[in-house]
Amino acid sequence: MSGMDQILEIHANAVRYGTARAEWFLNLTAVLPNGEVIKTRSRARKSAAGFDITKLFIGAEGTLGIVTEATLRLAPVVPTKVAMAQFPDVEHAVSAVQEILNTPYGPHIQCVELLDDHMMKAINTAGLVDKPYPVEDTLFFKIQGDPSSIQNTSKAVQAIVKKHGSSRFEFAATEQEADDLWQNRKYALMSTMAANPGTRCWTTDVCVPVSQLPRLVYETKKDLTNSGLRGTVVGHVGDGNFHALILFQNDEELLAVSNAVHRLVHRAISLDGTCTGEHGVGVGKKEYLTHELGEGTVELMRVIKRAIDPFDLMNPGKLYPSKGKQEELHEKNAY
Predict the structure, then answer these.
(1) What pLDDT digit, counting tens, does each position of 184-218 carry?
(2) DSSP structure class, residue 169
(3) Over 60: is that where the pLDDT of 156 sits?
(4) Which residue blocks in the chain are alpha helix, DSSP H?
(5) Which residues contact 64 (CB under 8 A, 6 or more apart)?
(6) Could you tell me if 91 and 218 are in contact, meaning their C-beta atoms sit under 8 angstroms apart?
(7) pLDDT at 325 over 90
(8) Phi-psi region of 196 (alpha: psi -120 to 50; beta: other; left: phi over 0)
(9) Which residues pair with 170 in a beta bridge?
(10) What is the pTM of this model?
(11) Partners of 72 in beta bridges
C-alpha cells in the first residue's frame, strides 16, 4: 500500500473508482524527518478542518516522511462480467468508450483496457494464451452490478461498439472463461518480452485527456516505427492513461528508446496531459515537471520540502527537478 499511496497508483479500476488519492485514503500516520509522528486527520468520511495533509503526503514519493499506517475506504465486491471487442484502429475503440461512459450505463463499467495490435500479436506469439486472437486493436471490459444491470449494460456496450466498427465482440460465458480472458490483459509485459527473445524492455507511462488518446497512440506508434524500434501499447482507456513497452537489445537501441520516451512525454504534455499517470516521477521524469507544472508550482514544492525536510534526508534526489546554475546563483544572492 505504501507504493500505491506514494504514486497515486490504482491501475485499471480508476475508470470506476478513481485514483488512490485521499478519496480512498482517509488518513495516514507518518514519521517526519525530525522523528515526530503525525496523523493527518481523523477517520470521518469528510472533513473541512485544516489543510488536507493526507493529499500532501500522497504522491510525494517518500520525500516528506515515512508512511507507517493508512486508513482506507473499502468498496464492496460487486459481481462482474468480462467482454472483449476488437476494432480497425484505436480511434474507433476510444470513440466507443467515450460514448459508453457518457450513457446512463457508464457507472457500471469497472475497467476498460486497450491493447494495440502489436500487443495482441505478442500475446499470440508468446504462447501464453489457450487460443490465438485476431491481431487488431482490442478493448477488454469489466462490467459490474446486479444481474439486471449487467445485462442492460452489456446490451448497450454491444450496440455501441458495433456502431463504432467493432469487428468482433464476445462475452465470457463462465467465470473461468472471464478469468482467462482478463488474464490475457495481465500478460502484457511477459508477452512482449517472450515474443522477442533476447530483448530488454523500457516501460513508461503518460496520461492525457481521453479525447486526445487516439492521437497520442497514433503519433507514438508512428514515431517508434520511424525510429526502428519495437514496442507494444497498453492503455487504461477509460481515463486516458497510456503505457508503452519499448524493446531494446544494446546500448545504441537503449539511447534510441530514451530519446523516444523523451518525445512521448513532451507529446503528452503538449496535449494537456502529464508525464506520468501511475508510475511516478522518481529520478527519470523529474526533468519534465517544470514544463508540465510551471516554475512557480515546482518552487512551491521545493519550499514545502525544505520546510519539512531541511537536510534532505527522505528519498534524496527524487521528484524535485534540479535547479539551473542561474537559479541557484539567484537564490544564493537572495540570502
Answers:
(1) 777 888 899 999 999 999 999 999 998 899 899 99
(2) E
(3) yes
(4) 2-7, 14-17, 53-57, 90-101, 117-126, 147-163, 175-186, 188-194, 213-226, 251-270, 289-293, 295-308, 325-334
(5) 30, 32, 33, 56, 57, 304, 305, 308, 309, 314
(6) yes
(7) no
(8) beta
(9) 84
(10) 0.88
(11) 25
Single-letter amino acid code for the residue at 42: S
Specify whether the CB–CB gap between 180 and 109 falls below 8 A.
no
Q: Record the cell numbers describing residue 173, joined without a space.
A: 460465458
Residue 289 class from Cβ within 10 Å (0-12 exposed, 13-18 middle, 19+ buried)?
buried
In this prediction, residue 6 carries a pLDDT of 52
Bridge partner list, 27: 71
Could you give the angle at the alpha carbon of 57 between the alpha carbons of 56 and 63, nearest 5°?
Answer: 115
Q: What would the pLDDT profile of 217-240 be if each residue is shown by its tens digit?
A: 999 999 999 999 999 999 888 889
- Tell me which long-range contacts 170-173 makes (C-beta under 8 A, separation of at least 24): 170/83, 170/84, 171/81, 171/82, 171/83, 172/81, 172/82, 172/83
Count of alpha carbons within 13 Å of 177, Cβ hemisphere only?
10
Range 59-77 average pLDDT: 92
